[in-house]
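Re: your question about Peroxisomal membrane protein MPV17

S., sorry for the slow reply, the queue was backed up all week. Below is exactly what I fed in.
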Amino acid sequence: MEKLVPAARDSKTIVIVEQLTSSPWNNFLFMTYLGMVVEGRKWSSVKSQLKSHFPSVQLNAWRFWPLVGLINYKYLPIQLRVLFHNLAAVCWGIFLILRSKASVPKLATA
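Result:
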């Protein structure tokens, strides 16, 4: 990111650019893929889940990822940035999966 936006060496600017560009798309695509491909649900079901849960997921992303980004760019050496970011991404993925599972209605067993 520092090479793409050379004038923005400030870690806050880099984090803001990341959050406004990639964060919403990443969460939208993850939730859509999880619902349609992994869980095998129809688009209408995934769409209703996105309408009801995407705003809160994105709000939580804007709470979580800026903190990760600031720690990453401000306090970690470049050699540890990918490792730290990947660890945070695993935690975020677990959050999204648990959030998705909690919102899917359970099928009644007879």
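Helices lie at 11-38, 43-75, 78-103. The chain has a mean pLDDT of 82.

Happy to talk it through on Thursday.
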